[in-house]
Amino acid sequence: MKPELAVEPLESWIQTDGKPLIIAGPCSAETEEQLCETARQLKELGAVHVIRAGVWKPRTRPGSFEGMGKAALPWIQRAKAETGLPFAVEVATPEHIELALKYGVDILWVGARTTVNPFNVQEIADALRGVDVPVLVKNPVNPDLALWVGAFERIAGAGITRMAAIHRGFSTGETSKYRNVPMWQMAIELKDMFPQLPIIGDPSHMAGKRAYLQELAQMAMDLNYDGLIVESHIDPDKAWSDAAQQLTPAAFGEMLDHLQIRQVESQNLEFQGAMEQIRAKIDNIDRQLIEVLAARMAQVEKLAEYKRDNNVTVFQPDRWKEVHETRAKLGKKMGLYPELVEEIYKIIHMESIRKQTEVMNSNIQNA
Ligand SMILES: C=C(O[C@@H]1C=C(C(=O)O)C=C[C@H]1O)C(=O)O
């Protein structure tokens, strides 16, 4: 069964004049001055639709700054009144929801550390029943699409229809130049499942460092994301949390100026004709690719029968080493991204092993 979500289009709940939705603000509300001044400078850019700030901060270890809590809520009221912009805050418990709504927070978001826990998400969903507020859901910390989807289903189950996803990247244990590995494929899969669900890129949490913000924000735009959420602080180096990834409102304005916003389609007939011709060639090449893969698998299957009849193991480390090294080298020589060929061959090899194991086991069953 294909899952379905009743989601209202972004334009119906927030006006952006066809431009990407821009949410910006400090990682944490630290002081009334810091919050209101950051909000004021962001408003001045003329490109920000929503101000964000963390009030309750889930920190990995105790002892770090955990947010100002309730004390920051009146500052939010002031920042809202002064800028006229709506405000978004992370909530992790029913109490946070109650307080945020009491103080006029317009948009709630569920953080990555909450999305991982279905008990937590359900509690939030229950607290949202009967409340008419937009809810953004960050991807879970770990790359588990089902947890992300589950959070939307639980929140939708409470009757919330104004929803969007925030893609903030994943903690994978791999070393990467980014704080959280984007794994763009995850968001693409989410979009495949729920085409109507808006996706907002969070380059700040992917990057971890301000130097990477521009490239990540551009990538999100090139993948047709509906918006961006970016951490901005009047004095980033002195920020009480996430100092390295925040940038001043002015630097954020420059970053937005450098973003290339492209269209999903073009009405240019010459362009459309060229696309059609090239895509026909790609279709043809893909058919050949699949035929070649099938031919390779047929040989693998034959080899497996010999291995079975001669009591030889499926996995052959020396041969595998030779295969993946020579193919990676060839790929590189052909100008392909080396990791591409390596990754493809890892998948081919695992399938080859699966198929051969099947052939081996067919003997056991027949014996
Ligand atoms: C096909 C074989 O079995 C396995 C699969 C390989 C492949 O698909 O290229 C290589 C080595 C083996 O681990 C083989 O032994 O050659």
Automatic annotation (TrEMBL):
Protein name per its UniProtKB record: chorismate mutase
EC number: 5.4.99.5
Enzyme superclass (EC): isomerase
Residues in Chorismate mutase domain copies: 269-360
Entries under InterPro entries matching the protein: Aldolase_TIM (IPR013785), Chorismate_II_sf (IPR036263), Class-I_DAHP_synthase (IPR052899), CM_dom_sf (IPR036979), CM_II_prokaryot (IPR002701), DAHP1/KDSA (IPR006218)
Organism whose genome encodes this protein: Nibrella viscosa
PANTHER family on file: PHOSPHO-2-DEHYDRO-3-DEOXYHEPTONATE ALDOLASE, PROTEIN AROA(G)
Keywords, comma-separated and alphabetical: Transferase
PROSITE patterns assigned to the protein according to its UniProt record, in alphabetical order: CHORISMATE_MUT_2
